Amino acid sequence: MPHRPYIVGNWKMNGLRAAMTEARAIDRGAQRHPGVRVGIAPPFTLVHAMAEAAQALFVGGQDCHAKPSGAFTGEISAPMLKDAGATFTILGHSERRAMHGETDAVVKDKADAALAAGLDVIVCVGETEGERDAGQAEAVVTGQLAGSLPLGEGDAARVTVAYEPVWAIGTGRVPSVGDVAAMHAAIRAKLVEIYGDAGAAVRILYGGSVNAGNAVELLGVPDVGGALVGGASLTADSFLQIVAAAGPAVD
User: Fold this and answer.
1) Which of 86, 208, 227, 244 has its CA 20 to 30 A from that of 219?
2) 75 catalytically annotated
């Protein structure tokens, strides 16, 4: 049975308590699109409030530590996210990989920790502009998958992959439909190699400057099972247009 399309907003370091107004509006809109799975990963300070208020939204974290507790100042553990009401966490985002030096092995350890705490995971992969120009994009992305994905029995059912070309994040640039299709096909093949038949059912999201204007085209690409949305997820008006592109509303 095919998955519902999955549209996830990554709020990054945006959102004060006043942003709950937008979150509630997104939640109301999500209730009108039962054929679409809608998630928001707000800053950690809003996870509990958003999870408490949500009727249809899935609420998640933007990262977690690989250890369940300990002397790690400023970090958030997977059990803490779960306790706050989160149901998933994003891991391995290119900003974490680039700014915090996270390797594939670090991402895998975090994924294992998140799953152990009862969270689902969205594992991000993507190439830089230089890697694409050098013809290495598929090798880089499939290598990230091999090193970052959890490998426990049944893990595939709780994993989503998000392909985000680094050079398209927040730039307004989007790869061609053909390039997206080719990369998602390569990711699918690697998932089947890693997980066997279960890899055929893992959702693959596209991320990188997704907006209301390009969502329909991107979501129509084979093996694109949804979108990981950045800036366009910060307001209900723009984010719900992307949700609507994934599935019709019910009055």
Assistant:
1) 86
2) no
DSSP 8-state assignment for residue 90 = E
Burial environment of residue 48 by CB neighbours within 10 A (0 to 12, 13 to 18, 19 or more): middle
Residue showing tokens 């994009």: 137
Angle of helix 137-148 relative to helix 177-195, nearest 10 degrees, comes to 30
Give the DSSP H or E segment for 10: strand 6-10
Q: What is the DSSP letter of 28?
A: H
| Confidence at residue 2, expressed as pLDDT on a 0 to 100 scale | 63
DSSP state of 77: B
pTM for this prediction: 0.97
Which structure tokens are listed for 5? 């399309």
In this model, does residue 245 exceed pLDDT 70?
Answer: yes
Catalytic residue among 93, 102, 138, 184: 93
Question: CA 28, CA 21: separation in Å to the nearest integer?
Answer: 11
127, 131, 138, 164: the active-site residue: 164
pLDDT digits (tens, 9 = 90+) for 131-188: 999 999 999 999 999 999 999 999 999 999 999 999 888 888 888 999 999 999 999 9
Does 164 qualify as catalytic in the annotation? yes
Q: Could you tell me the two tokens for 33? A: 């699109």
* DSSP H stretches of helix in 134-197: 137-148, 177-195
List the structure tokens of 23: 């979150």
Residue 172 CB neighbours (<10 A): 9
Cα atoms found within 13 Å of the Cα of residue 241, Cβ hemisphere only: 12
Interval 55-69 mean pLDDT: 98
